[in-house]
Amino acid sequence: MKSRLIAAGLILMVVGCRRSVDTAVARLPVSPSAPSSAHQPISSSAPQVVFLGTSLTAGLGVDPDQAYPALIQRKADSAGLKIEVVNRGNSGVTSAGTLATIDWILQNPPAVLVIETGANDGLRGQDPDSIRATIQKIIDRVRARDSATRIALVGMEAMPNLGRRYVAQFRAIYPGLARTNHLVLVPFLLAGVAGVDSLNQGDGIHPNPRGHRIVADNVWRVLRPTLEAVGRRP
After folding, report:
1. What residues contact residue 67 under an 8 Å CB cut-off, 6+ apart?
2. What pLDDT, on a 0 to 100 scale, did the predictor assign at position 45?
3. Residue 206 annotated to the active site
4. Of 22, 36, 65, 203, catalytic
5. pLDDT tens for residues 85-137?
6. ∠ CA 116-118-123, rounded to 5°
7. What confidence score (pLDDT) does residue 38 get?
8. What is the DSSP string of the chain?
9. How far apart are CA 103 and CA 175, in angstroms?
10. Catalytic site residue from 55, 91, 95, 121
């Protein structure tokens, strides 16, 4: 049942994303000034947790405080963790676009960097080996800037119409990179949300507020130990 829901959600992405992603790219060019922050840091002493991602992270179509990074902030606050979540989601961005902005992001290296990228590459059927290499460059750039930054990688899925081989190769990108680089891995950001009409906006692509709450649960379940390590109050 779960695999059918995921497949259904990705089929919806095939129908809608080819149009909407290109439109989003046209509206929101990738540049160092493009990423927005849903939660601006309010305490210079609090470790920063930066969410670097696509429109799924940016919260396209919902209020900034309804997007899953803002919900992670609230979960951390409730758990007594002293962290500051910064949302650097950028609608329409590819992994190459993310790489192009990473040095700007790393001007102030965060305590934790959560990387959600590759979904738009998959929508365009880009070569999985190329996507993997680009994400590896992002990881390498982070490690070179500050080896103390903890990195979490968010897994995505490719569309079934691209064929079983492509889907399998794309899916393998994320656990492979996580193993090689010893990263925390969120297996699939949209688990339990993809393909469920009541959890997505009318485009069938982007989670609605209810969907973002489930996405936040998916991320929190994996990321909580890392956040506790950097943000536990005395």
Report:
1. 38, 57, 58, 59, 87, 89, 212
2. 82
3. yes
4. 203
5. 999 999 999 999 999 999 999 999 999 999 999 999 999 999 999 999 999 99
6. 130
7. 41
8. -HHHHHHHHHHHHHHHHHHHHHHHHHHS--STT----SS----TTSPEEEEEESHHHHTTTS-GGGSHHHHHHHHHHHTTB--EEEEEE-TT--HHHHHHHHHHHTTS--SEEEE---HHHHHTT--HHHHHHHHHHHHHHHHHH-TT-EEEEE-----GGG-HHHHHHHHHHHHHHHHHHT-EEES-TTTTTTT-GGGB-TTSSSB-HHHHHHHHHHHHHHHHHHHHHHHB--
9. 25
10. 55
CA atoms of 220 and 71, how far apart (whole Å)? 9
Q: What is the value of pTM for the model shown?
A: 0.83
In the residue annotation, 55 being an active-site residue is answered as yes
State both tokens at 92.
């329409």
Out of 20, 95, 121, 206, the active site residue is: 206
Q: What contacts 26, CB < 8 A, 6 or more positions away? A: 92
Summary mean pLDDT of the chain:
86
- SS3 of 161-195: the string is HHCHHHHHHHHHHHHHHHHHHCCEEECCCCCCCCC
